[in-house]
Amino acid sequence: MPIVNDPELQVKVKKTSEKISENMHIIANEPSLAFYRIQEHVRKVIPLIVDRRGEVYQLQQDLQGKCYDMEYAISAIKEIEAADQSLKNIQESLKNAIFLKQQLKYVESRRPKKDSNSSVYKRLSAHITLDLPDLPDISGVVRETTNRVEHMMSQARSSSSNSSGAAPAELQRSYTTLH
Fold this sequence. Notes:
The protein is mainly α. It has four helices and no strands.
Protein backbone atom coordinates (compact mmCIF):
# COMPACT_ATOMS: atom_id res chain seq x y z
CA MET A 1 0.00 0.00 0.00
CA PRO A 2 1.41 3.24 -1.01
CA ILE A 3 1.16 6.22 1.31
CA VAL A 4 -0.25 9.31 -0.35
CA ASN A 5 0.70 12.72 0.91
CA ASP A 6 -2.02 14.78 -0.57
CA PRO A 7 -3.04 17.62 1.80
CA GLU A 8 -6.43 18.05 0.19
CA LEU A 9 -7.18 14.40 0.64
CA GLN A 10 -6.11 14.54 4.27
CA VAL A 11 -8.44 17.49 4.94
CA LYS A 12 -11.32 15.60 3.35
CA VAL A 13 -10.50 12.45 5.34
CA LYS A 14 -10.24 14.46 8.57
CA LYS A 15 -13.50 16.26 7.87
CA THR A 16 -15.24 12.99 7.01
CA SER A 17 -13.93 11.22 10.11
CA GLU A 18 -15.11 14.15 12.33
CA LYS A 19 -18.59 13.99 10.77
CA ILE A 20 -18.70 10.21 11.23
CA SER A 21 -17.54 10.63 14.84
CA GLU A 22 -20.15 13.35 15.46
CA ASN A 23 -22.89 11.19 13.93
CA MET A 24 -21.80 8.21 16.02
CA HIS A 25 -21.90 10.41 19.12
CA ILE A 26 -25.43 11.66 18.26
CA ILE A 27 -26.63 8.13 17.48
CA ALA A 28 -25.08 6.80 20.69
CA ASN A 29 -26.66 9.54 22.84
CA GLU A 30 -30.02 9.81 21.11
CA PRO A 31 -31.67 6.98 23.09
CA SER A 32 -30.56 8.53 26.38
CA LEU A 33 -31.95 11.87 25.26
CA ALA A 34 -35.23 10.18 24.35
CA PHE A 35 -35.31 8.44 27.72
CA TYR A 36 -34.60 11.75 29.43
CA ARG A 37 -37.56 13.33 27.64
CA ILE A 38 -39.78 10.37 28.56
CA GLN A 39 -38.65 10.60 32.19
CA GLU A 40 -39.33 14.33 32.23
CA HIS A 41 -42.82 13.75 30.80
CA VAL A 42 -43.57 10.99 33.33
CA ARG A 43 -42.51 13.18 36.28
CA LYS A 44 -44.88 15.90 35.14
CA VAL A 45 -47.84 13.63 34.41
CA ILE A 46 -47.72 11.05 37.26
CA PRO A 47 -49.04 13.36 40.02
CA LEU A 48 -51.97 14.32 37.81
CA ILE A 49 -52.66 10.68 37.02
CA VAL A 50 -52.53 9.76 40.71
CA ASP A 51 -55.00 12.55 41.53
CA ARG A 52 -57.31 11.42 38.75
CA ARG A 53 -57.05 7.84 39.96
CA GLY A 54 -58.17 8.93 43.43
CA GLU A 55 -61.09 10.86 41.94
CA VAL A 56 -62.09 7.86 39.82
CA TYR A 57 -61.89 5.59 42.89
CA GLN A 58 -64.10 7.99 44.88
CA LEU A 59 -66.58 8.21 42.01
CA GLN A 60 -66.61 4.42 41.81
CA GLN A 61 -67.41 4.19 45.54
CA ASP A 62 -70.19 6.78 45.19
CA LEU A 63 -71.60 5.02 42.16
CA GLN A 64 -71.50 1.67 43.93
CA GLY A 65 -73.37 3.18 46.89
CA LYS A 66 -75.99 4.65 44.58
CA CYS A 67 -76.34 1.27 42.84
CA TYR A 68 -76.97 -0.38 46.22
CA ASP A 69 -79.55 2.31 46.98
CA MET A 70 -81.25 1.68 43.64
CA GLU A 71 -81.29 -2.08 44.23
CA TYR A 72 -82.77 -1.51 47.70
CA ALA A 73 -85.42 0.82 46.29
CA ILE A 74 -86.32 -1.67 43.56
CA SER A 75 -86.64 -4.49 46.08
CA ALA A 76 -88.80 -2.26 48.31
CA ILE A 77 -91.09 -1.47 45.38
CA LYS A 78 -91.37 -5.17 44.54
CA GLU A 79 -92.22 -5.93 48.16
CA ILE A 80 -94.89 -3.20 48.12
CA GLU A 81 -96.33 -4.69 44.97
CA ALA A 82 -96.28 -8.12 46.63
CA ALA A 83 -98.07 -6.64 49.66
CA ASP A 84 -100.96 -5.48 47.50
CA GLN A 85 -103.20 -8.36 48.59
CA SER A 86 -102.37 -7.79 52.27
CA LEU A 87 -103.18 -4.09 51.92
CA LYS A 88 -106.48 -4.95 50.25
CA ASN A 89 -107.30 -7.30 53.14
CA ILE A 90 -106.48 -4.53 55.63
CA GLN A 91 -108.67 -2.09 53.72
CA GLU A 92 -111.51 -4.59 53.74
CA SER A 93 -111.05 -5.18 57.49
CA LEU A 94 -111.14 -1.43 58.11
CA LYS A 95 -114.37 -1.12 56.14
CA ASN A 96 -115.89 -3.96 58.18
CA ALA A 97 -114.70 -2.36 61.45
CA ILE A 98 -116.24 1.00 60.48
CA PHE A 99 -119.49 -0.71 59.53
CA LEU A 100 -119.59 -2.63 62.83
CA LYS A 101 -118.82 0.55 64.78
CA GLN A 102 -121.69 2.32 63.03
CA GLN A 103 -123.99 -0.59 63.88
CA LEU A 104 -122.93 -0.43 67.55
CA LYS A 105 -123.51 3.30 67.62
CA TYR A 106 -126.95 2.84 66.13
CA VAL A 107 -127.86 0.12 68.62
CA GLU A 108 -126.61 2.23 71.55
CA SER A 109 -128.58 5.23 70.35
CA ARG A 110 -131.78 3.14 70.27
CA ARG A 111 -131.30 1.89 73.85
CA PRO A 112 -132.85 3.91 76.63
CA LYS A 113 -130.19 5.84 78.52
CA LYS A 114 -129.48 4.68 82.03
CA ASP A 115 -127.43 6.46 84.64
CA SER A 116 -124.82 8.71 83.02
CA ASN A 117 -122.40 7.98 85.86
CA SER A 118 -122.08 4.35 84.88
CA SER A 119 -119.52 4.75 82.16
CA VAL A 120 -117.07 1.99 81.38
CA TYR A 121 -114.24 4.03 82.87
CA LYS A 122 -116.08 4.60 86.13
CA ARG A 123 -117.09 0.97 86.38
CA LEU A 124 -113.51 -0.15 85.76
CA SER A 125 -111.97 2.38 88.13
CA ALA A 126 -114.36 1.36 90.91
CA HIS A 127 -112.63 -2.04 91.07
CA ILE A 128 -109.08 -0.67 91.07
CA THR A 129 -107.71 0.30 94.42
CA LEU A 130 -104.46 2.14 94.87
CA ASP A 131 -102.80 2.23 98.26
CA LEU A 132 -100.45 5.19 98.49
CA PRO A 133 -98.26 5.47 101.59
CA ASP A 134 -98.69 8.56 103.75
CA LEU A 135 -95.93 11.06 103.04
CA PRO A 136 -94.56 13.01 106.02
CA ASP A 137 -94.83 16.76 106.06
CA ILE A 138 -91.43 18.07 104.94
CA SER A 139 -92.29 21.74 104.73
CA GLY A 140 -90.75 22.41 108.17
CA VAL A 141 -87.42 20.90 107.14
CA VAL A 142 -87.40 22.86 103.89
CA ARG A 143 -88.21 26.09 105.72
CA GLU A 144 -85.40 25.46 108.25
CA THR A 145 -82.84 24.73 105.52
CA THR A 146 -83.87 27.85 103.61
CA ASN A 147 -83.44 30.02 106.70
CA ARG A 148 -79.99 28.55 107.36
CA VAL A 149 -78.82 29.18 103.80
CA GLU A 150 -80.10 32.78 103.84
CA HIS A 151 -78.42 33.38 107.21
CA MET A 152 -75.07 32.00 105.95
CA MET A 153 -75.29 34.09 102.78
CA SER A 154 -75.94 37.27 104.73
CA GLN A 155 -73.00 36.48 107.04
CA ALA A 156 -70.76 35.87 104.03
CA ARG A 157 -71.81 39.18 102.45
CA SER A 158 -71.28 41.16 105.63
CA SER A 159 -67.87 39.60 106.33
CA SER A 160 -66.69 40.17 102.75
CA SER A 161 -67.79 43.81 102.88
CA ASN A 162 -66.04 44.31 106.29
CA SER A 163 -62.76 42.73 105.19
CA SER A 164 -62.40 43.40 101.48
CA GLY A 165 -58.85 41.99 101.32
CA ALA A 166 -59.65 38.80 103.24
CA ALA A 167 -60.88 35.58 101.69
CA PRO A 168 -64.65 35.08 101.72
CA ALA A 169 -66.00 33.21 104.72
CA GLU A 170 -66.67 29.52 104.24
CA LEU A 171 -70.24 28.39 104.34
CA GLN A 172 -71.06 25.87 107.03
CA ARG A 173 -72.54 22.64 105.77
CA SER A 174 -76.03 21.81 106.98
CA TYR A 175 -76.52 18.29 108.30
CA THR A 176 -80.29 18.43 108.21
CA THR A 177 -81.75 15.19 106.99
CA LEU A 178 -85.23 14.40 105.87
CA HIS A 179 -87.07 11.80 107.95
